[in-house]
Amino acid sequence: xxxxxxxxxxxxxxxxxxxxxxxxxxxxxxxxxxxxxxxxxxxxxxxxxxxxxxxxxxxxxxxxxxxxxxxxxxxxxxxxxxxxxxxxxxxxxxxxxxxxxxxxxxxxxxxxxxxxxxxxxxxxxxxxxxxxxxxxxxxxxxxxxxxxxxxxxxxxxxxxxxxxxxxxxxxxxxxxxxxxxxxxxxxxxxxxxxxxxxxxxxxxxxxxxxxxxxxxxxxxxxxxxxxxxxxxxxxxxxxxxxxxxxxxxxxxxxxxxxxxxxxxxxxxxxxxxxxxxxxxxxxxxxxxxxxxxxxxxxxxxxxxxxxxxxxxxxxxxxxxxxxxxxxxxx
Length: 330
Prior knowledge:
The protein is of the alpha/beta class. Helix content is 32%, strand content 22%. The chain has eight helices and 13 strands. Strands 7, 8, 9, 10, 11, 12 and 13 form a seven-stranded mixed β-sheet that branches. A six-stranded mixed β-sheet has the order 1-2-4-3-5-6, with helices on both faces. The longest helix is centred in the C-terminal third of the chain and has 17 residues. The protein is globular and about 55 Å long. 50% of the residues are buried.
């Protein structure tokens, strides 16, 4: 294992310390494994909280900021935060208007956040939940509720965060978050594994000349593994599979995210984006506010995800509303 670290068991805590030290205008760490907005909760505004394992920056902690999230609970690499950490994040985000729990559809996170919500109810803090389940490979359309949440979280954080800044009530912020989640679809592919520091070995093995289509962000099995294909062929298949799951007709408006899973350089993402854009514009689809870069990673995995969010006037306006964190400025 080659990593720039001290003790593997201090990896997450030292990362969070460095994050807050580098960006004190955005992030504060009021207690261990909890990141909150610098300056604390905004009174009268719905608080939005997320949580999950480390190893995916900017998700989860990175999107704490104005127009985005209010707090995040962070676990070890690829491991769920504890119930207590999630409850603490919710308390830090509470400005008296309730708290939305907005996170990915993973079993440990769901169980712990549900328990944290029950704890907060006993403290008279109202909360609601929206789960991201945008990874089309992880379950068929008829079982969409079982799908994993991946880079679609970026869009949900942004649109729900913008609605919360308008001082909308908890029901309205929850509605927008769910509407955004329902409008997102994602698919990924990987060329290499990554290494969890505490494990000290790669999460899976794959040949030097191979790729896997549909692999999840923790190394969950994909659709097929075969020889590496050219960029256009890879992108075409990803777009075709997304279109099969969510058809887009002439006049549709989307935001398109071509995302690095960690080690894939921007140059290769732009090669993919140019092909995806051409394919979609051939169908009469308009791309609004495209995103290309590292928005949801998996440590040093080489690979990419393609996500789109199908926009209407409401979601487009919320997507374009001001927001600021260390990793994304609108």
